[in-house]
Structure formats: C-alpha cells, structure tokens
Write a sequence for this structure.
C-alpha cells in the first residue's frame, strides 16, 4: 500500500487535527458511520484511536456517511 501497512485516506477537511499535506488523513484509525449516528458520542481515545463500537449499518451512498475521527485543530493564540 502507498501509505505503508494502512490504506491512504484522503480528506479535504483542513481544520481537522489529523489533516496532512496533500489532503492525507494522518489518524491511526478512521471511524466512519452512517448519518443516522452522526451525533453519536463514541468512547474514543484520540492519538491511540480506539473506538468502542460493535454495531453494523448499511449505506446506499457515500453521502449517507460521516467521519467520527474528525477532531478540530486547536486555535492558535
């Protein structure tokens, strides 16, 4: 794989902590869910990236999904 052992994930949300050069996501783990769970708060440990979720869903298109890995960058003072 181009990104070592893990797939390359592209993201255009530049205010995310994990956003990197050329729109590459630098998170160790990516949590993607269906929009139905968009407001869910999973037990997440960022940096270690562990998500406490065992449910399974189906989506008809990418428009029906959302990324729970997003974490806004800290605002500089």
């Amino acid at each position: 794989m181009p990104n070592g052992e893990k797939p390359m994930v592209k993201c255009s949300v530049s205010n995310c902590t994990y956003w990197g050069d050329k729109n590459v996501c630098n998170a160790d783990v990516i949590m993607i869910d269906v929009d139905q769970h968009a407001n869910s708060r999973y037990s997440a440990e960022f940096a270690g990236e562990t998500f406490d979720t065992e449910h399974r869903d189906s989506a008809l298109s990418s428009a029906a999904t959302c990324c729970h890995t997003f974490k806004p960058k800290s605002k500089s003072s």
The chain has a mean pLDDT of 74. The CA atoms of residues 29 and 49 lie 5 Å apart. Strands lie at 19-20, 24-25, 32-34, 44-45, 50-51, 65-67.
